[in-house]
Amino acid sequence: MLVLGIESSCDETGIALYDTQKGLLAHALHSQVAMHEAYGGVVPELASRDHIRRAIPLLEQCFAAAGVEHAAIDAIAYTQGPGLAGALLVGASVACSLGLALGKPVLGVHHLEGHLLSPLLATNASYAPPRFPFVALLVSGGHTQLMRVDGVGQYALLGDTLDDAAGEAFDKSAKLLGLGYPGGPAISRMAEFGDPLAYKLPRPMLHSKDLNFSFSGLKTAVLTLVKNHPANICEQDKANIARAFVDAMVEVLVAKCIAALKQTGLNRLVIAGGVGANAQLRSALNAAADKKRFQVFYPELEFCTDNGAMIAFAGALRLQRDPAAATHDYAFNVRPRWPLNELT
Ligand code: ATP
Ligand code: MG
Ligand code: FE
């Protein structure tokens, strides 16, 4: 079965072709980061317009790279939500128009399910993806959740953030340090040069005895440190603050993952979402996995942040379970707000 995937929930246009026998045939991505950078964050209207410009050329690029005809696809999976309504509508309308033109069925995919299943997508033979069940930590720009995953569509929420998402805290703290948008990768690079002993920031909810998170206080602590510095805060101070932020964030995320493994009695941990690309988080999790004897799995770096491959892949897994999940009803709707637990 060959599935075309279309992602357009936020500021990345992603297209991919996934074959259930041969794996990922091709994928293409355009990030709008440079366009939104000037505004310090995503401007929804600009995002929608850019998706319109990019979707078809990327689609053609993908088919050409895979060397397959349009008519060879069996279904089209598109991100139905959650995300920006206007941006989602672009992907949905491209998917449904193409479906109508080619007579192929379409399937709306949950963006977070795409992230969640991305560590199962193996594109090289040396990677052995995790078996179900596992604990998943979803750490993205809009979400920070711990889940027990028993199979495709079987997700039990174990913990959630009470306020900011991890990626959001990275981005907001980076902005406070003047590091641009999106700040996750920038603050992470800067932290490498920071003195770990210069500042100590709070570890929010580290001892809360549940699996929930809270990161808005951490961002406020960064704000306080920045304010305590003169206007011309030096690079070393920025690096020290970045280091304190990353250390606090990583310690909390790792501790909650270990607690979730303990609570569920599972020994496989899967990381998904953009913050899963973070080098400090990966090395701390790897060290914990060695010490506590659990296995940890990550998506490939390019599939941590938004991409079309995870949507094609999640769509294909859904269709393998239930071929009727895709329909010839092209009257699409999008779901800007769509809690994962409403997914059946
Ligand atoms: P959601 O999936 O919740 O709707 P999103 O799609 O915007 O949100 P992702 O694309 O999964 O989120 O991830 C983007 C986030 O990941 C941004 O907040 C970005 O700063 C963060 N991020 C990306 N790379 C890194 C990194 N190396 N270190 C820390 N954070 C990172
Ligand atoms: Mg993005
Ligand atoms: Fe995402």
Briefly characterize the structure.
One of its GO terms (molecular function) is tRNA N(6)-L-threonylcarbamoyladenine synthase activity. The chain has helices spanning about 35, 45-65, 85-100, 110-115, 165-175, 185-190, 215-225, 235-265, 280-290, 310-320; strands spanning about 1-5, 10-20, 25-30, 75-80, 105-110, 135-140, 145-150, 155-160, 270, 295.
SSE map:
Blueprint lengths: L1 E6 L4 E8 L3 E9 L1 H5 L6 H23 L8 E7 L3 H18 L3 E5 H7 L16 E6 L4 E8 L2 E7 L5 H11 L7 H8 L24 H12 L7 H30 L3 E5 L6 H14 L2 E3 L11 H13 L23
Parallel strand pairs: 1-4, 4-5, 6-9, 9-10
Antiparallel strand pairs: 1-2, 2-3, 6-7, 7-8
This protein binds adenosine-5'-triphosphate (ATP), magnesium ion and fe (iii) ion.
GO molecular function: tRNA N(6)-L-threonylcarbamoyladenine synthase activity
Main location: cytoplasm
Subcellular location: Cytoplasm
What structural keywords apply?
344 residues, alpha/beta, 2 domains, five-stranded mixed β-sheet, 10 helices, 41% helix, globular, binds adenosine-5'-triphosphate, binds magnesium ion, tRNA N(6)-L-threonylcarbamoyladenine synthase activity, ATPase_NBD, cytoplasm, Gcp-like_dom, transferase
Explain what you see.
By secondary structure, the protein is an alpha/beta fold. It has two domains: 2-118 and 303-342, ATPase, nucleotide binding domain (Nucleotidyltransferase, domain 5); 131-299, Nucleotidyltransferase, domain 5 (2-Layer Sandwich). It is built from ten helices and ten strands. It has helices at residues 33-37, 44-66, 85-102, 111-117, 166-176, 184-191, 216-227, 235-264, 279-292, 309-321, and strands spanning 2-7, 12-19, 23-31, 75-81, 106-110, 134-139, 144-151, 154-160, 268-272, 295-297. A hairpin with a 3-residue loop joins strand 2 and strand 3 (23-31). Helix 5 (166-176) runs antiparallel to helix 8 and helix 8 (235-264) packs parallel to helix 9. The radius of gyration is 20 Å and the shape is globular. 51% of the residues are buried. The mean pLDDT is 97. Fe (iii) ion binds next to helix 4.
